[in-house]
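Ticket #4471: structure export looks truncated?
Reporter: QA, pipeline team
Priority: medium

Steps to reproduce: submit the single chain below to the structure queue and open the exported record.
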Amino acid sequence: MIREAKFAGFFYPKSKKEIEKVLKDFFEKVKLDKIKEEIIGIIVPHAGYIYSGLTATYAYSLLPKNIFRAVIIGPNHTGLGKEVSVFYKGKWKTPLGEVEVDENFSKKVIENSLFAKEDFEAHLEEHSIEVQVPFLQFLYKNNFKIVPICLMNQSISVAKDLANALVKTNEEFLLIASSDFTHYENYASVNEKDEKLIDAIISLDLEKFYKTINKWKISACGYGAIAVLMEITKILGGKIKLVKHSTSAEVSKDYLNVVGYASLISFKE
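Actual output as written to the record:
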């Protein structure tokens, strides 16, 4: 199955030339030294590029020169499909070309998991995974494979199960956790809640992470994806650090209805 680009022209530009120009501008603005440690994965936002694309670039700019596969996990905003939906075969298409889905790896994840199922439906109208693909294509052309996983069920049990299922494949992968942070609160509230959430993420303590979300009513949409990366980082003896935090207010100048965005990176010590 070929998954067509649903959100080109909405969340990101619709033509190859426009996408390449926007992303080239982002990467030229972000000048970070590469880290020496082995990178496990990143947490990046999935709003429209005009709002969160530059923030996402901070994490993407730290990725290695080459990758073989990227596991991209995002939340289910539509309510369609399975609780944990793996787009297990075919290709994903964007204006930058087609990327192959790693069918063999996908099937291993499904076999290792109590929750993950083969499913296309959850992905057809979902933007949280699609908006990450052009970043990877810009960096690596189409010389990599993807494993798209969409989470309707973002419970701690699912996060632990999926993390273990991925590690048990005993294969190399880069994990991309796609999530925006606090949604549609005033500027001060968004910054306060995002700071609490980032502290919980860096702790690698899943119980603390979920308690923080519940206690402070934090509306980060992809918290399950973040939890998967936290658990894998813990299993592999790594750590997570913040690279960049921003808000929609920096673009919109609306300080009453603000969304928070953050880039974080996970790496082996």
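Status: closed, not a bug. The export was complete when the record was re-opened. Leaving a note from the reviewer for reference: The chain is about 40% helix and 25% strand.
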